[in-house]
Amino acid sequence: MSKIGFVGLGIMGGPMAGHLVKAGHDVTGFDLSPTGLEKLKAAGGATAGSAAEAVRDKDIVITMLPQDEHVEAVFADILAHAAPGTLYIDFSSITPKTSIWTATEGAKKQLRVLDAPVSGGEPGAINAALSIMVGGAEADFDTALPIFETVGKTIALVGPNGAGQVVKAANQLVVGGTYALVAEAILLMEGLGADAAAGLDVLAGGLAGSKILELKRKSMLERSFQPGFRIDLHHKDMGIILQAARQAEISIPMGALTAQLIAAARAMGHGSLDHSALLLVAEALAGKGQA
Ligand code: NAD
Predict the structure, then answer these.
(1) What is the CA(10)–ligand 1 centre distance, in A?
(2) Where are the alpha helices (DSSP H) in the chain?
(3) Is 168 considered catalytic here?
């Protein structure tokens, strides 16, 4: 069992840290907000008063933070306070560039670094069923595997440092685009008097079926958009995707359109709703509902 420092105990990090406690690891958590700290305490973990304290003298340090600037801030504490040889796993979804930078800077302090963004949303975190796409060295991946298996089900090493983030960007491209199309399909069925609930059931069982249709068709029809995964975070991910496409020198017109729809959701004030709230944008564009 390992001594683990876990920074970022939000929607995803909270349940993930809880699973590691349950598996018998010695977990010390830190978050700027008291909610995550209280939940970790209730789950049997220890809490620290700062990121520096959480990451000191640990075998493994984990972060699950919103975006690049949060990872950069906490990584400064990791560089300064984590012991040489510590394995650092970043589960956050950030730019490949920042993940590569943490690996390069970490190596100078003998830290072993993996980018390991996840997919599966809040239910995946709660049920320890996440998909985990990992970038880094094979030996470090092998060391981290028991941790990954404690929080996830589908786990793959997809290349060197940064590659996990590239695959996560591809994931978010498909998820965002799928939501946009499911939203339009709902309006189409409702607009022409078809039974949209029965219609989505059929879609879910056919070639159009997807995890999104499986998990979200009911809540979308009910216009229930409690997060889940916030529009604000998907907006951040679309920025990562567009930047990655530019770096790869490829054109992604569907991705660009999806990015604009997500930006519109934010501009309409829906940033803190679940990304399935792309339905509200589709409604506004169709002259229906309230923007
Ligand atoms: P969240 O906002 O619920 O949690 C992030 C936590 O980090 C918050 O509790 C916040 O207080 C804390 N934090 C921020 N800066 C900090 C700092 N300097 N020190 C300590 N704590 C700090 O976000 P989330 O939904 O858990 O997402 C985390 C990451 O996982 C994001 O990169 C997101 O894109 C990704 N992700 C989220 C989901 C999802 O469905 N929510 C799914 C897959 C991936």
Answers:
(1) 5
(2) 13-22, 34-42, 51-55, 68-81, 96-108, 121-126, 138-151, 163-191, 196-205, 211-221, 231-248, 253-267, 278-285
(3) yes
Q: Of 199, 176, 208, 204, nearest to 281 (Cα)?
A: 176
Q: What kind of fold does domain 166-285 have according to CATH?
A: N-(1-d-carboxylethyl)-l-norvaline Dehydrogenase; domain 2 (1.10.1040)
Whether residue 291 has pLDDT greater than 60: no
Residue nearest to atom 1 of ligand 1 (CA): 10
Task: Give CATH 1.10.1040.10 domain extents, the chain.
Answer: 166-285
Residue 228 Cα: closest atom of ligand 1: 40
Find the catalytic residue in 168, 216, 218, 288. Answer: 168
Q: Where in the chain is the domain with CATH 3.40.50.720?
A: 3-160
CATH 1.10.10.920 fits 3-160, yes or no: no
Q: What is the pTM of this model?
A: 0.94
Dump the DSSP string for 276-288. Answer: GGHHHHHHHHTT-
**C-beta of 30 in contact with ligand 1 (< 6 A):** yes
The string of pLDDT tens digits covering residues 100-122 is 999 999 999 999 999 999 999 99
Q: How many other C-beta atoms lie within 10 A of the C-beta of residue 206?
A: 9
